[in-house]
Amino acid sequence: MSLFDWFAANRQNNESAHQPQQEREIADGLWTKCKSCDVLTYTKDLLHNQMVCKECGFHNRVGSSERIRQLIDDGTWVEISTNITPTDPLKFRDKKAYCDRLKDYQEKTGMNDAVVTGTGLIDGLPIALAVMDFAFMGGSMGSVVGEKICRLIEHGTAEGFPVVVFCASGGARMQEGMLSLMQMAKISGALERHRAKKLLYIPVLTNPTTGGVTASFAMLGDLIIAEPKATIGFAGRRVIEQTLREKLPDDFQTSEYLLQHGFVDAIVPRTEMKRTLAQMISLHQPFHAILPELQIETHVEQEKEKVYETVASTNDFYK
């Protein structure tokens, strides 16, 4: 081999070594890349783990239908208020007419509006459940969202069911103006009547829960639960920093920060959500719902005897 041939062969080898390697093509929908740790997970395994990354615990956003499937016992879900649809009372228009925007989201999601409400069983316990869906206009709260949640609460009050609302929202829907803001007071009033009946209400705050939803029913629970690392707040971070003129902590407006400062009662991973909710509901059931009617008197008498025995033994001790 001549010196010229040696240089030519060596140059060709160097060029091929420096050529960028083509990335493996991944079948669409077969694998999912985690937004937090970039690990590839088989989509079926991710669904089986309720869309929670097994490597880092990142909670991917889920729709209302998937959320209901994760929580409610098979064959027990009954949706209510399905015939309520939004209108355009203000004839609002920005880059697009509000009525056209609604049609686009209805075709895209298959939903009438940003919340699904109904009743079902969770580990055999009855529940009135509302699930907000961020895929429909950012889960914004308009008149239909407010009306459906209000009717669900009133239905739960009438039936004696605990109410659970999964919040996922950017806040009030600006296209409906004051009509959207009125829903805050309307739902809060329904919750007060629910509370007066000594019935349980649990809001579950998912990523994100902001604006008028946070300023009303999301923070009125008897127990307030949040998913890990969810963004929760009222005004945006930048607005608050400009108002206060100081830098906020990096974890500001997260579930963990709010738990530390007493705004949230518990942070519950999605994989444990059904079991935790069922446990909380069972602990707060009315006394007559736990024991059959014929056993109540016997149970009370047994408890009285235990108290009498305790008092007698205490008196003997002090003698």
Task: Write a compact overview of the structure shown.
The chain has 319 residues and is an alpha/beta fold.
What is the strand and helix layout of this fold?
Blueprint: H1 3-18, E1 31-33, E2 40-42, H2 43-48, H3 64-71, E3 78-79, H4 98-109, E4 115-122, E5 125-132, H5 143-159, E6 163-169, H6 177-196, E7 201-209, H7 211-214, E8 225-226, H8 237-244, H9 255-260, E9 266-267, H10 273-283, H11 287-290, H12 293-318
Parallel strand pairs: 5-6, 6-7, 7-8, 8-9
Antiparallel strand pairs: 1-2, 3-4, 4-5
pLDDT < 50 runs, ≥5 residues: 288-296
Radius of gyration: 27 Å
Helix content: 40-55%
Which strand-content bin applies to the residues? 5-15%
Query: What is the CATH fold-level name of the largest domain?
Result: 2-enoyl-CoA Hydratase, Chain A, domain 1
CATH class of the largest domain: Alpha Beta
How many independent structural domains?
A: 2
Helix/strand-derived category reads alpha/beta
State mean pLDDT (0 to 100 scale): 87
End-to-end span in angstroms? 113 Å
Total strands: the figure is 9
H/E order of the elements? HEEHHEHEEHEHEHEHHEHHH
Output the number of helix runs: 12
Instruction: State the CATH superfamily name of the largest domain.
Output: 2-enoyl-CoA Hydratase, Chain A, domain 1
Architecture (CATH level 2) name of the largest domain: Alpha-Beta Complex
Q: Specify the biggest β-sheet.
A: 7 strands, mixed
Principal-axes geometry comes out as globular
Can you list the strand order of the major beta sheet?
3-4-5-6-7-8-9
